[in-house]
Amino acid sequence: MTPRFKAFIVVFESLIFTVGFLFGVAIRFVDVPLFEHEHLMAKALSMTAIIQFCLQYNGLYDFRGAHVGRSPFVRFLAALLLANIALALLYWLFPDLTVGRGVAFLAMGFDLVAVGLWRFAIARYIQSRPLRRVLILGDGELALELAGMVRAHEPVGFRFVGFLAPETSETVDEHRIGHYGDLTETVRQTQTDLVVVAIPDRRGAMPVAELLDLKFSGVEVMEGVDLYELFTEKIYVKGLKPSWMIFGDGFRKTEANKFTKRCLDVGASLFGVLVAGIPMLITALLVKLTSPGPAIYAQERVGEFGKIFTLYKFRSMRMDSEAAGPQMAKDRDPRVTRFGNFIRTTRLDELPQLFNVLRGDMSLVGPRPERPFFVVKLQREIPFFRQRLFAKPGVTGLAQVKFRYAENPEDHLEKLQYDLAYIKNMNLLYDVQIILETVKVMLFRQGSR
User: What percentage of the chain carries pLDDT values higher than 70?
Assistant: First the structure.
């Protein structure tokens, strides 16, 4: 499922929750005109935001079967229960937003029925689509990974036919059913709907004429990198051709997108500073009390287009942490203080970067900014690492909610695959989805190390 389709589901369900609240108010107070109720939209939006967060936390927007042990209905009920607890806390903190039990009961009932029908319609839509029989061209690392992914996605409409290897291939695999020269006949015999091209070296090897004939006869032909992104939300970097990024979809920066992203950055950062002001003061005090040195740590980082800026964060390491020179952060890093470990796993150490966002050095969502020393090093070791510098760095990002701290070049390669996928599909709704995932990490320490 593409990020755009998931974002559409999030927005549509947010509309359902807002309408559900208005429905509850209209039924409960039938004699009072709807929009004469005090703080009506603030109450509606706060309830919608909390329910959305609870759905995210319970995995209701993970459509790849990560929660096979619990049915979506059970997870939705758990999300509504959690939402009620969170709303009770919200109403205790902000009494003006309080909603009566009758309104809440009617709204939650509406949400349960409406979202249940909506999710049933989505499931039927996915199941009703014709089974896509997939044939893979290639026998390299990407081809073998894709073969496993297609087999894992059979419940959502894929069927793996097998793969074709070059004549000189020595790969032994039960799913290898022929060579490139057998392409047309194999497609006919297996009734293949989708041919995936995952050939690492295509010079003189790719059956171009046969692929053209198949394309014009109605068989879908797809790049292996595209299918990999569809399944993993990552872009396969190893062996990636620059032409795929130059001529492919995505990687567009329009003035409208930049304007809406900046509006979200400024608005959400101001809100974050107001809400997190006291927690930030407490965090700064505890950093000072638990280890010698300043509470705020300033460090040079590489920003958009390679511009150097000063990043601020709460100090989580000892003052002598780099006595031997620059070092990459590690999982369970021995240089991290006891309290520093807590603020790193909850992402509280990143809160001062809200001021970097307000200054325009950073965005709320984007690739994490690296230090100049490591940028030079990683550009030499990792292909396309330089391309992530063409996006404004973020306080959080897709790589941050999907992967751990990068300890070595292999980890940085993995995070780069997420960063490039984010840059390719960057839009306002995608940012909101990543921010919701980040809040989940901060509150429940899920996905963080």
Answer: 94
Q: Is the pTM of this model over 0.90?
A: no
Going by pLDDT thresholds of 50, 70 and 90, the confidence category of residue 445 is low
- Beta bridge partners, 163, equal 136, 176
In sequence order, the 6+-apart residues with CB closer than 8 A to the CB of 355 are 269, 273, 312
Fold assignment, 132-232: Rossmann fold (3.40.50)
How buried is residue 293: exposed, middle or buried, by Cβ count under 10 Å (0-12/13-18/19+)? Answer: middle
H helices within 201-359, ranges in order? 208-216, 224-232, 242-247, 255-290, 338-345, 353-359
| Beta carbons within 10 angstroms of residue 286's beta carbon | 16
Q: Return all residues near 70 (Cβ < 8 A) that are at least 6 apart.
A: 78
Rounded to 10 degrees, the C-alpha dihedral 391/395/398/402 comes to: 150
Residues 6+ apart with CB under 8 A from 304: 389, 390, 391, 392, 393
Local structure of 307: helix, strand or coil = coil
d(CA 106, CA 222): 47
Contacts of 141 (CB under 8 A, 6+ apart): 200, 238
Which token pair is 357? 């966002």
Q: Whole-angstrom Cα distance, residue 144 to residue 199?
A: 11
What are the residue ranges of helices labelled H in 35-96?
40-57, 72-93
* Structure-block tokens of residue 56: 């995210």
DSSP characters for 157-185?
A: TEEEEEEEE-TT-----TTEEEEGGGHHH
Classify residue 250 as left (phi > 0), alpha (psi -120 to 50) or beta. Answer: left
Which run of H or E residues covers position 117? Answer: helix 101-128
Mean pLDDT of 122-149: 85
Every domain of the chain and the residues it spans: 3-128, 132-232, 255-444
Backbone conformation region of residue 204, classed left if phi is above 0, alpha if psi is from -120 to 50, else beta: left
The residues near 89 (Cβ < 8 Å, ≥ 6 apart) are: none
